[in-house]
Design goal:
The protein has 175 residues and is α/β, with parallel strands linked by helices. The protein contains three helices and eight strands.
């Protein structure tokens, strides 16, 4: 009787291990966005920001919520001390107008940061290697909340409510 149980147990353990390996394979494929290390046909653009916030390499570049590329490199300009993000854009979207603007946004309240492109209306297009001229830096939510919560007297929106309302002094020529 124990010999009949042995093959069943071995089969169950083997099936469990195969299921675990298959799950790891699915997780690995999902985390690489089905790219498997092969480079797609892309071209590079750069964008200069005063504040990157939580933007990281491999962050998506989107237009209207659709991912069209990735952030491939982030560097600091040693002269102007601006952050320069290099964007790898899919060649299918090579006709971006030259007046396209780039903003760093966050998906949700605590989501990942990404670069959002807003195409302009110019007929001239951005060429590979060019810099996007119009950029909006990331908004630091923690810093903004801290300023609002800990602002002293004379520095916040609550100042108007704290001061008594005064009426203008009557002019001398009025009775």
């Amino acid at each position: 009787m124990s010999s009949a149980r042995g093959p069943r147990l071995e089969f169950a353990v083997g099936a469990f291990l195969l299921l675990a390996l298959a799950s790891l394979l699915v997780l690995a494929i999902a985390s690489t966005n089905n790219r498997f290390g092969f480079a797609r046909d892309t071209y590079e653009l750069t964008a200069r920001f005063s504040n990157l916030g939580q933007l990281r390499t491999q962050a998506p570049v989107r237009i209207g919520g659709v991912t069209i590329g990735r952030v491939t490199r982030i560097e600091l300009d040693p002269v102007k001390f601006d952050s320069i993000a290099t964007l790898a854009i899919d060649r299918r979207y090579q006709d971006l107008p030259i007046d396209t603007s780039a903003s760093i946004l966050t998906g949700g309240l605590l989501g990942e940061s990404y670069v959002d492109l807003q195409p302009g209306g110019d007929v001239e297009t951005l060429q590979p290697g060019e810099e996007i001229a119009f950029t909006t830096p990331a908004v630091d939510l923690i810093q903004m909340v801290g300023r609002y919560m800990f602002s002293g007297p004379g520095a916040g929106a609550n100042d108007a409510a704290a001061e008594p309302a005064t009426s203008p002094a009557p002019r001398e020529d009025q009775p």
